[in-house]
Design a protein that fits this description.
This protein has helices spanning 2-21, 163-167, 231-256; strands at 30-34, 59-61, 74-78, 93-95, 114-118, 123-127, 133-141, 147-153, 156-162, 172-174, 180-188, 198-203, 208-218. It has 257 residues and is an alpha+beta fold. It binds calcium ion (CA) (2 copies).
Length: 257
């Protein structure tokens, strides 16, 4: 119990450090890490999702149909013009294999299709409405040296994240991936300066850059998360409900007695 509590406090502290250390630059695109959430608590084999996945105003693309995603808000392009639907070593594409980003614990193996990017083929994600995003979250996993995530606005680089930045705070280790780390990474604008209209996923080394469950929010200026009840508040309400139930039960016993 103590160890568990300590581990969660340590994870929280690391998250806080990550947010603070990147907040000093001119374009302070915020950054946070968590193990992620499930879209449906009964389905744990689709990777981790944003806490916001079921909230209005967010778009989540899960790659599950195996096709290159496109909708009226987001467009994906591959620099080589093509992508593979078959998983074999070193292929950029959309498919499933053991390197799929895991769920919120390493033993929740992701059996769904995901996006794999290898050296020589970059994936570009653009806002199709000529608007900007102020939030992007994704399940990244089996993190490898060379994983690079770049955010742009009007062709100018806003911020770049590298393997080193992501891997040092990730905590979800997958044994089927030889202990490589996974997790849900979120990037959010602090103001108009760091809104972004383009994201590039590239890989600058031998391994792959695997990700799943990309969540976007189109919006200008500072990112404001959708209001969801804090887990502690929900637990508090449950506890209060429990007290009332017990009181009523006691009352009933007394009356009967
Ligand atoms: Ca998927
Ligand atoms: Ca990898």
């Amino acid at each position: 119990m103590f160890i568990k509590k300590f581990a969660s406090i340590a994870a929280l502290s690391l998250g806080a450090i990550a947010s603070i250390s990147y907040a000093g630059s001119a374009h302070a695109l915020g950054f946070s890490y968590s193990a992620g959430a499930y879209r449906d608590s009964a389905v744990t084999n689709q990777g981790a999702f944003s806490e916001q996945v079921n909230n209005k105003g967010y778009t989540t693309l899960d790659f599950n149909d195996g096709k290159v995603p496109s909708n009226d808000e987001v467009k994906y392009t591959f620099s080589q013009g093509t992508s593979s639907t078959t998983a074999y070593s070193g292929q950029t594409g959309i498919y499933n294999d053991v390197w799929a980003p895991s769920g919120i614990v390493g033993t929740d193996v992701n059996k769904s299709n995901y996006l794999a990017v290898f050296s020589g083929n970059t994936v570009t994600i653009e806002n199709t409405k000529d608007k900007v995003f102020n939030y992007f979250g994704f399940d990244a996993g089996a993190l490898s040296v060379g994983n690079t995530l770049s955010f742009f606005k009007g062709g100018n680089l806003v911020k770049e994240w590298t393997y080193d930045m992501m891997n040092k705070i990730a905590t979800v280790s997958s044994s089927q991936q030889g202990g490589q780390l996974n997790g849900f990474f979120e990037f959010f604008s602090e103001g108009a300066d760091d809104n972004f209209d383009k994201i590039m996923l590239s890989q600058n080394d031998g391994g792959g850059f695997e990700s799943d469950n990309h969540t976007f929010r189109t919006g200008t200026g500072k990112y404001e998360a959708a209001k969801v009840p804090e887990p502690s508040v929900a637990l508090g309400l449950l506890a209060v409900g429990g007290v009332f139930l017990r009181k009523r039960k006691n009352q009933k016993t007394l009356n009967l007695g």
